[in-house]
Amino acid sequence: xxxxxxxxxxxxxxxxVARLQYDGHGVAAWVRSESRxxxxxxxxxxxxxxxxSDEVLKGALSLCDAVVNVAGExxxxxxxxxxxxxxxVDSRVALTHRLxxxxxHSVPRPRVLVSASATGYYGDRGTEVLTEDSLPGSDFLARLxxxxxxxxxxxxxxxxxxxxxxxxxxxxxxxxxLAKMLPAFRAGLGGPIGSGRQYxxxxxxxxxxxVLLAALADERYSGPLNVxxxxxxxxxxxxxxxxxxxxxxxxxxxxGLVLRVALGExxxxxxxxxxxxxxxxxxxxxEHRFGNLESAxxxxxx
Length: 302
What we know:
- The chain is of the alpha/beta class.
- The chain has a domain at 2-169 and 204-227: NAD(P)-binding Rossmann-like Domain (Rossmann fold), CATH 3.40.50.
- It has helices at 11-22, 34-41, 54-62, 82-105, 140-153, 176-186, 205-217, 235-245, 256-263, 266-271, 279-283, 293-301; strands spanning 2-6, 26-31, 46-49, 66-69, 112-118, 129-130, 161-167, 169-171, 199-200, 202-204, 223-227, 233-234, 275-276.
- The chain has a 7-stranded parallel β-sheet with strand order 3-2-1-4-5-7-11, sandwiched between helices. The protein has a two-stranded parallel ribbon with strand order 6-13. It has a two-stranded parallel ribbon with strand order 8-10.
């Protein structure tokens, strides 16, 4: 199989490309910086510059069997100014529109598109159990996810099977949320965010990559999919487990007021949460390698 990957140099993309190459698949990566991509991905991938023409993009897609779209500028920690919001929308919605348009006009075309979204689709829902059938929220991040998913799902009109993966907080050694939290926790200054009662939908990066590969190969996968671990925890429980993993107390909460002053609207994402269960993954028979937080942190930090 030959796979076209966007966001290939990011936290998810680098792990996905490495796994695809290890499994013997071909990779074409749509990248902004060819030199950076070559450093991060090695020589085993073909690179397609984002700045190349749509004809070049269509040609690259016509040589691929599948597409994984995990591109997008980081949502945190920068404040969501009007300019920053435009960047977030363009790097997800506009990019996906361009990708799907080129995909729809490529001959032959890839059979499947697996496109990222986020559990932020649901907004802040407290302790409500959220499945793939739950309605979206109404805040900025929820609206962004709704538009992002619509852009991806439009590829169905060209006969492409589309899987939209609503990804939780990705835990990895090399970066992301865990790397940002570790310095404070290792110093004994970590703790829950705000009230600590909000749910933290998380997923080990290894499981996420395995889900992406399953979605490429298994035609039963289609539509929205919550990609979270079954062992959902609150912010307080997350802090306690992370403290245990680094052998430090985790009793210093981050006050909500401090976050609101420092981050503005972004704070609402950190102070809210989603109890997003991986119901469809269970129905499809997917078995998490890391189903609870203790095992995930032991693997990442042990």
